[in-house]
Write a structure and sequence with these properties.
- By secondary structure, the protein is of the alpha/beta class.
- Helix 2 runs parallel beside helix 5, helix 2 packs antiparallel against helix 10 and helix 5 packs antiparallel against helix 6.
- The strands form 3 sheets. The protein has a 6-stranded mixed sheet, with helices on both faces. Strands 2-1-4-5 form a 4-stranded antiparallel sheet, covered by helices on one side.
- The protein is elongated, with a radius of gyration of 35 Å.
- Helix content is 62%, strand content 10%.
- It has 2 domains: 314 residues, ABC transporter type 1, transmembrane domain (ABC transporter transmembrane region fold); 235 residues, P-loop containing nucleotide triphosphate hydrolases (Rossmann fold), CATH 3.40.50.
- The mean pLDDT is 85.
- The longest helix is centred in the first third of the chain and has 50 residues.
- The structure holds adenosine-5'-triphosphate.
- Adenosine-5'-triphosphate (ATP) binds next to helix 11.
- It is found in: Cell membrane.
- Keywords: ATP-binding, Cell membrane, Membrane, Nucleotide-binding, Transmembrane, Transmembrane helix, Transport.
- Pfam families: ABC_membrane, ABC_tran.
- It is a multi-pass membrane protein.
- InterPro entries: AAA+_ATPase, ABC1_TM_dom, ABC1_TM_sf, ABC_transporter-like_ATP-bd, P-loop_NTPase, Type_1_exporter.
């Protein structure tokens, strides 16, 4: 599956209605609040619509007859109505603000949970900074629309429809003339909106790119400083910033296109009402009071339309953000759990059967790999850099599925194991161990449900039984030694030790060490070797190492080169294969 989120996003075409329907599902549980919100909008718009009618009535019946008591009475009614509109307006913002915040919360959780479900290939193909921008920035665009614009949007629509109905009912011909410019606005909006959305999508993509650039340079700050290449990253950042700036200008211009066009047509409509209205009064078909009301209704129709111009732009931004978010939400993990297959009797612990694999479609890295691992034995994978050792180990741990062939775990297709079952049976110590902020204890118990409730004393007893006591002793404050994922308060070797303890404590059937001792001194390495020898007799160990002394005790050595795996037999033969490969390259 192609997990690249930034591929072809500009060409993507999602129907706005379909996108909106999906988005609204996120607030399906907010029906009551939305209903209340709608009621406040209807009251607000209703009050706005009745206002001009009352003003017209007051002019025709009380101002012209100079009945000031009547004028005062109706002025009081109008004041009451406007105060009520103020109160309903306040509740409207409060209700919708709450809905939008809850929506933002749900949306961020949904994206984060989806990202957590996705396989390693997804993270290979997307930059962390861009993903962060989607979770933070793009969701915020949707939040802004829902908290600030949606109710205004609906309110404006209701007011417009009401005002349009009044315009047509008071005088059909004048009404039709007044509304004619709106048809042009509608056509213009329909034609221009996809282009505006595209501009906004491009802008969000560039903002994501900028975020990725920041993330990359922060992650690599040491290399940047050591090589004095600040200028290089400054230049890269400047380019990304420039691209983001240009796309923001483009999006801003696109978003602003609606306001002047709507303004132009609104002005034209008012001119039409004024000219045609005065003509109708001159021939005795209309009254001054009615024209004042009429003018107010035309304003009530076109003012919200002008507001809609700005709101529509916000809507396009939100929809562009939603497209980027749904691209994540629509991703499916293609490493699905398959139905259980029959177990092959007397099978090896793990078996590769004619396995091919490539990170990109059509570009296989591993070709026709066949081998099996027996219970309780130690295996070594050796070979030149880039030969395919880590890739083979990643397939053993099912970080990826083969493009061809099969992998059997305990005689059953590895794909038929649930993630929990599989990770319980296979422990993988990666080349670059991942630690998170906390303590040594937090990190060695990561993913270990069995000991998570043990207090330090009980855990230390378990550690002692597993032979890890001396390793723990290398940390000043033992289990409580602080660990910080970002800074370097512990060495790389110490990180590898923590990852080692984490994996051993889980007591897996199969333990893979990918260059897991590369940064550990020889004495400590001997200690690790003793711990590995002390593991249960059932435990199978796969060691990937460049330092050959690490694999002295291996029962079998595999030589992995150019994506092919052969049995190397003795250590001597393995060494000759390595040397031959070095000479030929
Ligand atoms: N995430 C990835 N995406 C695309 N290609 C990759 C990826 N990881 C590795 N490769 C490619 O796969 C090939 C095998 O890499 P692999 O990491 O398995 O080699 P290795 O034998 O473990 O090397 P080393 O000894 O340096 O760790 C290399 O050509 C590498 O460029």
């Amino acid at each position: 599956m192609n997990y690249n989120l930034n591929q072809d996003t500009t060409k993507e075409k999602t129907s706005t209605v379909a996108a909106l329907r999906k988005l609204l599902q996120l607030i399906a549980s907010e029906q009551k609040t939305l209903l209340l919100g709608m009621i406040t909008i209807l009251i607000n718009s209703g009050l706005l619509l009745i206002g001009p009618l009352i003003i017209g009535y007051t002019i025709d019946h009380y101002v012209r007859t100079k009945d000031f008591n009547g004028v005062l009475q109706y002025a009081g009614i109008l004041l009451g109505m406007y105060l009520l509109a103020l109160v309903t307006g306040y509740f409207q913002s409060k209700l919708m603000g709450g809905v939008a915040q809850r929506m933002l919360y749900t949306l961020r959780n949904a994206i984060f949970n989806k990202i957590q479900e996705l396989p390693v290939a997804f993270f290979n193909q997307n930059k962390a900074g861009d993903l962060i921008s989607r979770v933070n920035n793009d969701t915020d665009k949707i939040n802004q629309f829902f908290s600030q614009s949606l109710m205004q949007f609906i309110g404006s629509m209701v007011t417009m429809i009401g005002a349009g109905a009044f315009l047509l009912s008071i005088n059909t011909r004048l009404g039709a003339a007044a509304l004619a410019p709106a048809v042009f606005i509608l056509v213009f909006t329909g034609l221009v909106s996809p282009w505006v959305k595209k501009k906004n999508a491009r802008n969000l993509q560039k903002v994501g790119g900028l975020s990725a650039e920041i993330q990359e340079s922060l992650n690599n700050f040491k290399v940047i400083i050591a090589f004095n290449r600040r200028d290089y990253f400054r230049k890269r950042f400047d380019e990304a910033n420039q691209a983001s700036y240009s796309s923001a200008i483009g999006a801003g211009m696109a978003n602003n296109i609606f306001v002047p066009v709507y303004g132009l047509f609104s002005g034209m409509a008012q001119l039409i009402v004024l000219a045609y209205g005065i003509y109708l009064i001159s021939i005795g078909d209309f009254t001054v009071g009615l024209l004042v009301s009429y003018f107010s209704y035309a304003t009530n129709f076109y003012n919200p339309l002008r507001q809609l111009a700005a709101l529509w732009a916000n809507f396009q931004v939100a929809m562009a953000g939603w497209d980027r978010i749904s691209a994540i939400l629509n991703m499916e993990n293609d490493l699905q759990v398959h139905p259980k297959t029959d177990q092959v009797a007397g099978a090896a612990l793990l078996e590769f059967r004619d396995v091919n694999f490539g990170y990109e479609p059509g570009k296989d890295i591993l070709h026709g790999i066949n081998f099996s691992l027996e219970k309780g034995k130690t295996y070594a994978l050796i070979g030149p850099t880039g030969g395919g050792k880590t890739t083979t180990a990643s397939l053993i741990a099912r970080l990826y599925d083969p493009t061809k062939g099969k992998i059997l775990l305990n005689g059953r297709d590895i794909r038929s194991y649930s993630t929990e079952e599989r990770t319980q049976q296979i422990g993988f110590i990666l080349q670059e161990p991942f630690l998170f902020s906390g303590t040594v204890r937090d990190n060695i118990l990561y993913g270990n449900a069995k000991y998570k409730d043990y207090d330090n004393q009980a855990l230390e007893a378990v550690i002692k039984t597993a032979g890890l006591e001396e390793l723990l002793g290398l940390f000043d404050e033992g289990l409580d030694t602080p660990v910080s994922s970002g800074s370097d308060n512990i060495s790389l070797g110490q990180k590898q030790l923590i990852a080692f303890m984490r994996a051993v404590l889980r007591n897996p059937q199969l333990l893979i060490l990918d260059e897991a001792t590369a940064n550990i001194d020889t004495i400590t390495e001997q200690l690790l070797s003793a711990i590995l020898n002390n593991l249960s007799k059932e435990t199978t160990v796969v060691i990937i190492a460049h330092r050959l002394n690490t694999i002295e005790n291996a029962d079998e050595i595999f030589f992995v080169n150019s994506g092919e795996l052969i049995r190397a037999g003795t250590m001597q033969h393995a060494l000759s294969l390595l040397l031959a490969e070095k000479r030929s390259s």
